[in-house]
Design goal:
Length: 228
């Protein structure tokens, strides 16, 4: 490793000496200098030799060049280190749930609760299903869910979005079962006073809704079995 470093420094030192020893001669047009695929400025050609600025050498070797009254000092870093100032890393995306996603998801949960309440009325009072309102609720909430998905930008947003989609799927399945049962005039499951309290699917949906709302307000992702 030390030998390689010595050869490297010797080569670069010779490069600088060539620059310092430029003699008056007929110049050819400067040429672009490319180092490791990156532009490093221009190289001057004199008497068949190419010369570059000492600042360029310092830039691509992470060295430091100092101009003194009677000399130019070029200092190379020790192997494995760098004397050049480190670039400021790009800021990382903020952890947790993004504000836009959380706001949109909370609004979506409110629409799901409204849908759930409308369908629960069928269970509570044995109401007759008239018109296409159950499908209208489904389509509206589904469309809003797609807009929430667009707002998911962080990893935590994506994880929370999956739970929100699970809640939608469970709610849609439950609502379809309730409406289908009522339309088939099977009143056994639609007019009992304890139907709401004994509906395990509805309880799971309600628990997930409460959990998601709390999680979204906190701004940090968490998981819960009720949302699966």
């Amino acid at each position: 490793m030390r030998d390689r470093s010595g050869i490297f420094h010797f080569f670069l030192f010779g490069f600088v000496l060539l620059f310092a020893g430029i003699l008056l001669a007929q110049n050819k047009p400067d040429r672009a200098l490319i180092v490791n695929g990156k532009s490093a400025g221009m190289a001057m050609q004199v008497d068949g030799h190419a010369y570059i600025e000492v600042e360029t050498v310092a830039q691509f070797t992470h060295g430091i060049v100092t101009f003194e009254p009677n000399r130019i000092v070029l200092t190379f870093p020790a192997p494995g280190t760098s004397m050049a100032p480190t670039a400021t890393p790009a800021p990382l995306p903020p952890p947790g749930l993004s504000r836009n996603f959380a706001s949109a998801a909370i609004a979506e949960l409110a629409e799901m609760r409204e849908w759930r309440g409308a369908v629960s009325t069928i269970l509570t009072y044995g109401s007759t299903v008239v018109g296409n309102w159950p499908q209208d609720y489904h389509d509206h909430v589904d469309s809003s869910l797609m807009q929430v998905k667009v707002a998911a930008t962080t990893a935590a947003d994506q994880d929370a979005m999956q739970l929100l989609q699970n809640e939608f799927s469970n709610l849609a399945r439950w609502a379809t079962d309730v409406v289908t049962t009522r339309q088939s005039l099977n009143a056994t499951n639609t007019v009992r006073p304890d139907t709401i309290q004994s509906d395990q699917a509805l309880a799971k949906i309600s628990n997930c809704s409460r959990f998601l709302n709390s999680m979204l307000v906190s701004g940090s992702f968490a998981d819960d079995p009720s949302c699966h």
